[in-house]
Amino acid sequence: MPVFPADNWWNVDISSAPVDTGSASYISYIGSTRRPHPDFGGEESPGSTAIYGFPYVIVNGSQPKQAVTFEYWDESDGVDSTGKSVPFYPIPTQAITQPHWIEGGAAGNVDQRGESDRHLLIIDCTNRYLYELYNVYYSSSQSKWLAGSGAFFDMKRNNRRPEGWTSADASGLAIFPGLIRYDEAANSAVPEINHALRVTVRATNGYVFPASHRAGSTAGALPLGARLRLKRSVNGVDPALRTSDPISRKIFRAMQKYGLIVADNGSDMYISGTFDVRWNNSVLNPAFSTLSASDFEVVQLGWKPPAATAPTLSSVSASPNPVTGGRSATGTVTLSAVAPTGGAIVALASASSAFSVPASVTVAQGARSASFPITTAATSTATTGTLSATYAGVRQTTAFTVNPSSQSLPSLSIGNVAIGEGNSGTRTATFTVRLSAPSASNVTYTIATANNSAAAGTDYVARSLGGQTITAGQTTRTFTVTVNGDTSRESNESFYVRLSSVSGATVAAGQATGVILNDDGPTLSIGDVSVSEGNSGTKLATFTVRLSQASSSNVTYSIATRNGSAAAGSDYVARSLTGQTITAGQTSRTFAVTINGDQARENNETFLVSLSAPRGATVFDSQAQGLITNDD
Fold first, then answer.
1. 22-42: pLDDT as tens digits
2. Does the predicted model carry a pTM greater than 0.70?
3. What is the largest CA-CA distance in the chain?
4. CB 240 within 8 A of CB 249
5. Is 59 exposed, middle or buried (0-12, 13-18, 19+ CB in 10 A)?
6. Selection from 171, 128, 167 nearest residue 3 by Cα
7. What is the mean pLDDT of the chain?
8. Which of 385, 459, 471, 507 is deepest in the core (most CB within 10 A)?
């Protein structure tokens, strides 16, 4: 979880960086048997003020700024040219009296400057700014904050301190990006800790890049800014495998790939992390003790990664190629090197009416390739066109072929749903995705909610699923959306459910509306139906009339067919019923319409089914469409 750009010194991969010629001597100075120590954890004892590790504070951009009076004002941010403090640091007032806001644990109005470094780390999440203070104390008698030094970092940029300047750390580096955070270490969904770790040693000698400040001149000691790296192999064995604890092993892997940066004088091989009561030091301490300083090597002092080569466009490709018209394909653009900061925008174009592509695709920063959708149309003959991509003046092309389908593809649709919100808890709105006819192969699609007048998080729970499949031979699949109940008096609200990236079917109705009813009683609706006509005999098109919620009394209505482009008698059998009842406690009833098969070559045809004369409910959707697909 890097908090600066990917090419920041905290975030670069050093696994292939050269070893310094003085590595063995530096390790010997530390002491080859010295064990690394996790300098982080929770409370010293349950409920205590004293803590292990660095706490940090997250504020938004509107947090009021406070002036801080500095001891080392000439190397601090937040002062004018005369050293006078100005309102600059967004320190919450709670930090004055509440514990666990400042390193060491005691509240800001407790003077412990002589006992610990008393760092205060603040993150403005709105602007992605980082503020760090050293040796903090709030003087109640003076009604102001005091500190040794303070530094500001824009986490969207690589802003190194001026040469000779300190920060809140002796090295002049930011502290927060080098801390191990519990959520990145313990979350199995996060594959790696992708940044270097902050480490202290007992003495230092000058500084090297990326540090900007010295804290000592002890002969034989490492300089501030030096990088230590856990070896990949010690006596033929990977030292990261000495522990079975997954959290510790993930930390060790970060030591191998991103290393440790010497940031301050302190205890030898003390590795920094955040204060978090979820840390389990009874597991971490034994795991760290399986390592020793001799398992580490010093990376070449002042090492910088080689300058990135500006990428060019290497290729554009499509898969599958050829593809049957109406089915989707995936295109891929590949660069010669990783995309720069901000990503690489590759322009796309298609020279055929048989397929289309987006105007562009972005290769993410640090990546070399990106994929994009290719949408195809049904064709009567095989059609080959040129798919092209252009980046930085380089154009690459590939031939892409769309073949005619051997049989008509079924159509995919999704029906509207109405549901009462309830006064509390949650309810489930169930949408049905339907095929007009079973397919001989799987049909896949992506489905996702989108706001309309209803807002995700407040009125319903947003949901998005890719790779949804209606398996060969089946015709439906459901998609559920959680609706949140409340007692607010409000109008009915709605959200959308949309289909995209459909493969194996055409799209008849790609968007449904979910209506959240404000508990004014049940509503009545009827959903669309699609059925193939067949070559002879008859089939049934079964429509479902639904209530948004069960009623405590019977709900009655009338229902009848009427012509669209399909004609009663020849294409379907007209039907009209009155006094239809959904009994109390039930939520649906079906209505079947007979479809007549024939062998006439004709277009798809439609008829309508309408609801009228409702009693016991209001009508949300009074009309459904019956689609008769031509399979001749």
1. 999 999 999 999 999 999 999
2. no
3. 102
4. yes
5. middle
6. 128
7. 93
8. 459
